[in-house]
Predict the structure.
Amino acid sequence: MIEVHNIKKSFDGRVVIEDVSAVMKAGQCNLIIGSSGSGKTVLQKCIVGLFEPDDGEVLYSGQNFTTMNGVDKTNIRKEIGMLFQGSALFDSLNVEENIMFPLSMFTTDGHRKKLDRVNEVLDRVNLKDVNRKFPAELSGGMKKRVALARAIVLNPKYLFCDEPNSGLDPQTSLVIDKLIKEITIEFNMTTVVNTHDMNSVMEIGDYILYMYQGRKEWEGSKKDIIFSKNERLNSFIFASEFLQDAKDMRMLEMTGKIPSLRNMDDMMRKDGPSL
Ligand SMILES: Nc1ncnc2c1ncn2[C@@H]1O[C@H](COP(=O)(O)OP(=O)(O)OP(=O)(O)O)[C@@H](O)[C@H]1O
Ligand SMILES: [Mg+2]
């Protein structure tokens, strides 16, 4: 579990994160959402310690990360996996070398053991026969998978993903989202995902923190979103009239005011006129 208490961050006197608190639980996907420039990346970097917050504290499994000494911080960092915005693979290293990099940095394992682990995580992200390929030879979705494999190679307790779907088509995005969700549950990781992809929110968002101009505007689950009356959240998530209508229908369905659309679909198939 990660606890964020009253984080504040400014750059050159301009406040970018203002008094943000959150509790992110293990075994679930915790999403930070918000429009471009709302502070998602800065907040995530404050949480992992890449930026030092001006105020506030971050606790990893109850341990105060903000105030702990360098050695303890390094130990927590070893338990953190990161998938950066844009994948950030090393262009001059092949897939195998990219994924092996953290193992060489943080373990004393021999080549055979490291290679076995590389192949294990490649298998976990459903990639085969790509060990010798260079990032330039991979599709966008494959790059994300390699970056995800690298992020989990040290078996992290905490996984951070900044815009894992940027630049991907909706179907490939869904595959990546499902993979992140599966891995999170399988290894009981505390996963934090920055996104502005609404499909991700509805697909994997166990806990959602909505940022608006550096502040926490709203928090809740994906189910809470359907019932939320927060206008900023609604106009962000359900930006089009079509999506707003879909939300209204889902709300009526969930409150039993109209029959379940899925049931209706079944009824049509069973009893409806044959076409
Ligand atoms: N290193 C920095 N120095 C100064 N200002 C910064 C720095 N990093 C981010 N900012 C500012 O902080 C604000 C929030 O930026 P951030 O990158 O967190 O937004 P974001 O929500 O991640 O946006 P996007 O969806 O485009 O990735 C922006 O106004 C940005 O200009
Ligand atoms: Mg960002």
In short: The pocket of magnesium ion (ligand 2) is lined by residues 40-41, 85, 162, 194 (CB under 6 Å). The chain has eleven helices and ten strands. The two ends are 53 Å apart (CA to CA).
